[in-house]
């Protein structure tokens, strides 16, 4: 059982860490269905991490079996027979348990560090926003309250700050440059980020990618998640404000940002991203031209595809875990 389980986990790790990463980074369907693409990316990363940790745990048979024996109160002989078939395994493999722990700790440290940095950055932005011009708090389409604040800054930017009360910050130059419909489109874009909790997706992707990149895996995970959350927010804004308005707001901010960046230096913060404005505008207009031909059946298929994506994510979490723990689950309490 142990050999087959290790082989299966190794195949999953190679398929997701290298093959899955390369495929998703170039798949055309991902950019046309970013919400599903995000789910599949997270599923791929989850499967890779669990497979790597599970492979190390199974190969470090002594440490792994003793841990299971203590946790499940299982019979030592039966547990050894289940995972190794009675074969002797060199004790040198036990060092892989240390590698698995180090890998898990590196992930935890990356998540904690990025989370603290993100919280510090949000605190600075909220402090600066206290001196800005506040609009009356209002509820979004999901009835979650948010506040729009205008601050003085020469560079045009619109960005969101998640928290107990969601904050959307707009610089004075952006408010002056955008028309009323374009301002509404930019705000809807940021509300979509808040509603979908995109900052959490980016946080996880950056932390996992920073750790796994050292293994040569998931190289595109972080950059692709950042790109897809912007596309997903674009789609939400288009559904409420129209494709031409969103494209116009994106183009206006892109042109003005380029001038401001050349004169003022790069902006910091989680701004209404315009780095890839050209391809995003083309995508919005392409989708708009095909949206008129989109039937109710096609929309139903898209909804079902998202449900299928969540199913894949669940399988990615349960699959490797089942391979590792399911055999031991049959021996719970067998030490009596």
Describe the structure.
With 336 residues, this protein is α+β, with helices and mostly antiparallel strands. It has 2 domains: 1-89 and 298-336, no CATH class; 134-292, no CATH class. It is 72% helix and 6% strand. The protein contains 13 helices and 5 strands. The chain has helices at 2-26, 28-32, 34-59, 61-72, 76-84, 95-129, 172-177, 180-196, 198-212, 221-241, 243-264, 277-291, 296-329, and strands at residues 133-134, 138-139, 145-151, 158-161, 166-171. Strands 1, 2, 3, 4 and 5 form a 5-stranded mixed β-sheet that branches. Strand 4 and strand 5 form a beta hairpin. Helix 3 (34-59) packs parallel to helix 13, helix 8 packs across helix 11 and helix 11 (243-264) runs antiparallel to helix 12 (277-291). The longest helix has 35 residues, at 95-129. The two termini are 24 Å apart. The model is unreliable at 262-270 (pLDDT under 50).
Short précis:
The protein has 336 residues and is of the alpha+beta class. It has helices at 2-26, 28-32, 34-59, 61-72, 76-84, 95-129, 172-177, 180-196, 198-212, 221-241, 243-264, 277-291, 296-329; strands at 133-134, 138-139, 145-151, 158-161, 166-171.
């Amino acid at each position: 059982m142990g050999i087959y389980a290790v082989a299966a986990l190794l195949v999953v790790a190679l398929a997701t860490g290298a093959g899955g990463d390369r495929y998703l980074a170039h798949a055309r369907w991902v950019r046309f269905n970013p919400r599903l693409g995000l789910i599949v990316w997270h599923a791929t990363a989850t499967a890779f991490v669990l497979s790597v940790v599970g492979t190390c745990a199974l190969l470090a048979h002594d440490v792994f079996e003793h841990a299971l024996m203590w946790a499940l109160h299982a019979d030592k002989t039966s547990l050894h027979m289940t995972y190794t078939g009675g074969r002797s395994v060199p004790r040198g493999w036990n060092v892989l348990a240390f590698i698995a722990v180090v890998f898990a700790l590196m992930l935890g440290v990356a998540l904690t560090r990025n989370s603290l940095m993100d919280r510090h950055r949000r605190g600075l932005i909220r402090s600066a926003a206290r001196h800005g011009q506040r609009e009356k708090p209002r509820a979004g389409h999901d009835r979650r309250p948010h506040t729009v604040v205008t601050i003085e800054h020469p560079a045009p930017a619109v960005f969101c700050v998640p928290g107990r009360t969601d904050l959307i910050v707009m610089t004075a130059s952006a408010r002056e440059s955008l028309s009323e419909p374009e301002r509404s489109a930019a705000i809807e874009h940021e509300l979509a980020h808040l509603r979908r909790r995109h900052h959490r997706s980016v946080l996880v992707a950056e932390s996992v990618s920073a750790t796994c990149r050292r293994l040569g895996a998931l190289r595109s995970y972080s950059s692709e998640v950042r790109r897809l959350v912007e596309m997903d927010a674009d789609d939400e804004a288009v559904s409420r404000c129209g494709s031409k308005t969103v494209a116009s707001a994106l183009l206006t901010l892109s042109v003005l940002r380029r001038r401001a960046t050349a004169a003022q230096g790069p902006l910091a913060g989680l701004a209404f991203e315009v780095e890839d404005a050209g391809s995003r505008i083309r995508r919005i207009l392409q989708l708009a031209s095909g949206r008129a031909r989109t039937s109710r059946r096609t929309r139903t298929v898209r909804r079902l595809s998202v449900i299928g994506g969540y199913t894949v994510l669940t399988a990615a979490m349960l699959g490797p875990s089942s391979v590792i723990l399911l055999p031991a689950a049959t021996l719970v309490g067998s030490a009596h």
